[in-house]
Amino acid sequence: MDDLQYPIGKFNPGTITPELRQQWMSEISELPKRLASTVAHLTQDQLDTPYRPGGW
């Protein structure tokens, strides 16, 4: 269990352009809707499952 760790690596996006920044902002703004759609069919027990042993 000691090897379970986050984050898994250093974030290195390369060159950040205005277009890339706009893409990221769009992805972030869509996240709540996409997440709600993804978990809509899950039961409460599934939603309460920790992501790893000892996780929240």
What does this structure look like?
The protein is an all-alpha fold. 46% of the residues lie in helices and 0% in strands. It has 2 helices and no strands. The protein is flat, with a radius of gyration of 16 Å. 0% of the residues are buried.
Keywords:
mainly alpha; 2 helices
Strand content: under 5%
The radius of gyration over CA amounts to 16 Å
Number-wise, the strands total 0
For the biggest sheet, the summary is: none
Number of helices: 2
Short description:
With 56 residues, this protein is an all-alpha fold. The chain has helices at residues 18-39, 44-47.
Topology of this protein?
Blueprint: H1 18-39, H2 44-47
